[in-house]
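Give me structure tokens for this 446-residue protein.
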Amino acid sequence: MTINLKTDPVSKSFYQYLWPALTGMVIKSLFIMGDAWFIGQGVGADGLGAISLTVPAYSIFTAIAMMIGIGGAAFMSIEVGKGNLKVGQTLLTQSLLITAVITSIGVALAMYNLDAMFAMMGASGNIAALATEYLSVMLQFFVLYALAWVLSCFVRNDGNPKLATYAMSLGAILNLALDYLFVLEFGWGMAGAAYATGISQLAIAGILLSHFVRQQGRLKLVLEGVGFSQTRNILQIGLPIFFIEVTSAMTIVLFNYVLLHYFSENHVIAYGMMLNVGVLALFVMVGISQACQPIISFNHGANRPHLVDEILRLGLKAAIGSGVVFLVVVWLFSSNIAALYLGEQPELIALSATSLSFYFFGVPLMGFNMVVANLFQATAKPMQATVISLARGFIFVAIGIVTLPLFFPEDGVWASVLFAEAVTALMSLVMLRAYQRQNNYQPAVA
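Here you go.
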């Protein structure tokens, strides 16, 4: 069914975008969690600790892809909302070119500095060796991974969110099947898990390209508009999401450093498990934001602020409501979830359950912050979105990591994420109120 943002009711458009986006993000998170499970079973607990050391590099390449993909696609939706289809076509072409150039440079730098990166975190021994084994393979696929991310953003905003979901779903299924084959059957360890992920990205890219081959939208995969003339506009709108991911990577580096130097390797393993389980909640919030973004951008471009407010209300209800559900489930079953990954290791399970509980207490606030940041990003107000992203993604987390353990030696380090989301939520609320007053419509938050 074709989505018509000009005539369809906002609620209908929201759910048409929401279910594919949410399904895709949930499936993607499940295959990341499944990936971690296979590593836990095939490599051991050290493998989970190694994964947490590789997440920063993964996050940086994701940040580049999301910055360009979401920035370019949001700007494309705004221009199409104004009737400028030719500009929208140029934005697709240049977004892919910019992604290829930046990620190629990034891969070369990462390959050269791989050992130094892990040494900087203080990693050594088996965990460092496993992390190097995994990332040395994954880096070979990161350019393809980034290009697939950008394609999915444009395909979704070009009125075909279901295809993006299909691509993500089939890629996830393939990834898990190859995990089983490479890690458990062939015994390839961390390298096998990395190859499984890389091959699945190739499949995702191939499926997304069918959107253009079959001409299912308004955009075409052509060289028209090739160049860098729209780089500033793309990066300016996409910068907040870049900060979300990059500051997330910086936060993980800081966490790993603190845990390795002041706590124990068990804490790193617990943190790695927390990251891989927490990605489900994070990606649900990303999916909700993705469902809101093209509708907000289009109606902002069409000068219909009352519809921007309507979609904001729907997004906030979905994000906060799902966050509460996550919190309740994890609060009740945190030990059971930890045991799925760690087997019969009571001390490690108890530590991991504590880290999970603290993380998920912040999830409803995370949903609020991400939807509000998405509003500013989708309406071409990158400064406000960047402030929120930096605050929740790094600044207040860093403050929490440094200060909270002084008052709560056992749990302070785990509570830092909750602290960051809570303080940022107050900032987000103030900024949202100011935005609503400026645009002269009723507040979305009563």
